[in-house]
Amino acid sequence: MQARLLARLRDDGPLSKAQLADRLQVSRTTVAAEVGRLVELGLAQEAGPAASRGGRRSTMVDLAGDIRFVGIVIGATGLSVGVTDGRLAVLATRHLACDIRQGPEVVLGAALAAVREVLDELGVDHPMGAGIAVPGPVDFHRGVPVAPPIMPGWDGYPVRDAVSRTLGCPVLLDNDVNVLAIGEQHAGVARSVRDFLFVKIGTGIGCGIVIDGELYRGVDGCAGDIGHIRVDDFGPACACGNTGCLEAFSGGAALARDATAVARGGRSPFLADLLEENGALTAADVGLAVQRGDAQAVQLIRESGRRVGQVLATLVSFLNPGMIVIGGGVTGVGHALLAEIRGVTYGRSLPLATGSLPIVLSELGDEGGVVGAARLISGSVYAPLASRRD
Amino acid sequence: MQARLLARLRDDGPLSKAQLADRLQVSRTTVAAEVGRLVELGLAQEAGPAASRGGRRSTMVDLAGDIRFVGIVIGATGLSVGVTDGRLAVLATRHLACDIRQGPEVVLGAALAAVREVLDELGVDHPMGAGIAVPGPVDFHRGVPVAPPIMPGWDGYPVRDAVSRTLGCPVLLDNDVNVLAIGEQHAGVARSVRDFLFVKIGTGIGCGIVIDGELYRGVDGCAGDIGHIRVDDFGPACACGNTGCLEAFSGGAALARDATAVARGGRSPFLADLLEENGALTAADVGLAVQRGDAQAVQLIRESGRRVGQVLATLVSFLNPGMIVIGGGVTGVGHALLAEIRGVTYGRSLPLATGSLPIVLSELGDEGGVVGAARLISGSVYAPLASRRD
User: Which has the higher per-residue pLDDT, B23 or A57?
Assistant: First the structure.
């Protein structure tokens, strides 16, 4: 009851007690009692009389104005931190360059210093909770990274507990894809969608699964790890040690590798120039080349999108989701990639499952992750164990 | 509340009011009030004092002894009907040969006559509800088959409403794969598993998805339609009009087709003899040949299992389920198929997702579908709209 009431206020904004009773399908008496308790707990506040609906005026209820959540999103080469209010509106953010390979002490130290700065700037002493995302597999229940391939030194490090100790508030740790999916659900294109997939195509590839409004983690917490689905028995070697993984064909690192081969092979003067200039190519360089109309770069993007579409077609036939949101660094190459993904996914899935299936690019920037991380912890703060009974 | 209380009694058996309060995490007062109401409604009964736990004795509560549900499972060439009590124990069943291509009037007529016989035999006047399954896509909310490929004459036929009129009780219609999955959940190997896939390999191939204890139908109701996932760009033609579908490689019809080619090509004397004898071969004939150690038949099963495993590996990496149950007619070929499916699925999925993933054969026979159909409607009967508030 408490959790559902607070989630309504978080997601729908201030509501009158009468509206809360309607939306939660309980009596006004129950709402009044529950609101009283939440005001005492410092989680909610009464906010004046509601507009008249005829009869006695109801009272408006809002989340307490001083609730603050922290969101921390750690990436391979940079990190974002932010502070939100109880409704997850972002009040301030910081973005820093930071190499994750420096290990947890250094990276978390930098993140927490940035959080402290933002909190001080906002005059916040005690945030109510913090969510933190890392770019690798996580044991959600233990709050530690598990054998993360691109995070040397982080395996088993007690990230959740270390951050919780420093900030003095409850903390939850999840992988970046799940947190981005939660962000889309709260503030992005998937806002009104109960069942959707968020596909991140960055250096690696992963998928967040939202089913009936809830993130689905699978029985071992590794649901959505689609980057290592084998799409070809005879594909390139993957960072995971296998061959033919989707990520080894279509991830940002794969795109950079293939672009380098194209440049060296003399098939794209534009990419060759960039390679000579910078010493290495990135997925973003392929995006630049595509904007210049470079035929080889367009071909690379098409091939990448085709493989992603092939996997998504299978997932669509299997799960029949209501939307697919594409995000992550490689979306810098944007519409060329999206067009190919759409073509293959629609062409290969069942007509019934794709009849009304939007496949769209994420419109959230760095803030999407911060909001997702804040929402992750807000769900837990708003639903303390003692009230799980409803 | 009502729904959760009745579902506890259905799945756990008679419980004392004290146990109900514990399991539902509500007060004993609430349980007592709710039980009183359910007794009045004829859904529950008090069943004497509970064993003492020290202090005042609690009262045992059970489902009303006269609750009866009907389960009807229509297949391509036969149908099963059965009647269960409130806890879904099967009291009697009938199985008839019946060609689904005779159309809904004939087939439903035969099914309902059989139901009436069983009800009369058991002395049941008014069943509380009936579940019915058909081997094709269904619009669950409208209760009609939708363009079912092997069911000429059934498209859009109001199956649910027709059966409801005849039996005078609420009815739900679903596809056979979903109903079999629900049966596994209630009475099969997946009984204690909250997240699993039920894969039916019969004439066609389909998948029931159970997530957090609930069947997942997808946003258009077509989740689990894995038979038409394209596993090869250059595969055989499928009944659906596309090429390279999983079903066109590995379904029972595909197996029969390939066995016929093997027999005609003179590569299996055993299959050639069967073909000459019967004029046609079936998937069951391949099973016979495998039992005889026929190398070509073993090869066919391996190839079939390999393709199924290839798709399952993708689904396992994606959804990280807790169990996969294999059922349907082709499981007559049993352990050879299972071994191949296991080998490919375990070999190609992520180690974390398969570390503790059982892939097992269904142990339920025809009764599995009857129990599943009865459970489908029981959920709806036990949760009338009026009580959806909790």
Answer: B23
Treating both helix axes as pointing N-terminal to C-terminal, what angle do A295-319 and A269-278 enclose, rounded to 10 degrees?
90
- Sign of the dihedral through C-alpha B104, B109, B115, B116: positive
For residue A389, give both structure tokens.
């009974």
Lowest mean pLDDT among A279-293, B111-125, B256-270: A279-293
Which residues, listed in sequence order, are joined to residue A97 by a DSSP beta bridge? A78
In a domain, A390, yes or no: no
User: A348: which chain B residues are within 8 Å (Cβ-Cβ)?
Assistant: 230
For tokens 């080998």, name the residue.
Answer: B343
- pLDDT (tens digit, 9 = 90+) per residue, A195-205? 999 999 988 89
Q: What is the DSSP letter of A232?
A: -
Q: Quick: pLDDT tens for B352-386.
A: 777 789 999 998 877 899 999 999 999 999 986 54
CATH number, residue A257 = 3.30.420.40
Q: Is B321 within 8 Å of chain A by CB?
A: yes
pLDDT of residue B269: 93
Same domain, residue pair B18 and B117: no
Can you give the pLDDT at residue B93? 95
End of a domain among B32, B65, B98?
B65
Interface test with B, best of A26, A217, A220 (most B CBs within 10 A): A220
Stronger pLDDT, B78 or A351, i.e. the higher one: B78
Would you place residue A77 in the very low, low, confident or very high pLDDT band (cuts 50, 70, 90)?
A: confident
Whether residue A311 and residue B311 make contact (CB cut-off 8 A), yes or no, is: no
* Cβ–Cβ below 8 Å for B318 and A228: no
Domain membership of residue B209 (yes or no) is yes
Per-residue pLDDT at A386 exceeds 80 = no
Of all residues in chain B, the one with the smallest CA distance to A23 is B389
Strand order in the sheet with B78-85: B90-97, B78-85, B68-74, B129-134, B171-175
Nearest to B302, CA basis, from B267, B330, B350, B338: B338
Report yes or no: B219 at the A interface, CB cutoff 8 Å: yes
Cβ within 8 Å of A, B 278-307 = none
Residue contacts between A and B (CB atoms, under 8 Å): 119
Q: Do residue B215 and residue B348 come from a single domain?
A: yes
* Structural domain span for residue A99: 68-183+367-385
Residues A348, A310: contact at Cβ < 8 Å?
A: yes
Q: 3-class SS at B323?
A: strand
- Are both A239 and A261 inside the same structural domain? yes
Whether B203 and B344 share a structural domain: yes
**Is residue B85 located within the same domain as residue B109?**
yes
Query: Cβ atoms within 10 A of the Cβ of B52, count?
Result: 9
* CA distance, residue B224 to nearest chain A CA (Å): 5
pLDDT at A390: 40
DSSP A107-118: HHHHHHHHHHHH
- Tell me, yes or no, whether A217 and A346 share the same domain: yes
In this structure, are B198 and B320 located in the same domain?
Answer: yes
Is residue B84 within 8 Å of residue B102, measured between CB atoms? no
Minimum distance, in Å, between the CA of residue B63 and any CA atom of chain A: 23
Which residues are A82's β-sheet partners?
Answer: A71, A93
Say whether both A314 and A328 belong to one domain: yes
Q: Cβ of A195 and B26 within 8 Å?
A: no
Structural domains in chain B (count): 3
> How many angstroms separate the CA atoms of B189 and B89, rounded?
16
What is the average per-residue pLDDT within A316-329? 92
Supply the mean pLDDT for chain B.
90
Please report, rounded to a whole number, the percentage of residues in chain A having pLDDT higher than 70. 96
Q: Which of B171, B66, B152, B155 is nearest to B111 (CA)?
A: B171
Query: Is A257 inside a domain boundary?
Result: yes
Among A142, A310, A317, A385, pick the best mutation site for testing chain B contact (most B Cβ within 10 A): A317
Q: In chain A, which among 343-362 make CB contacts under 8 A with chain B?
A: 348, 350, 352-353, 355-356
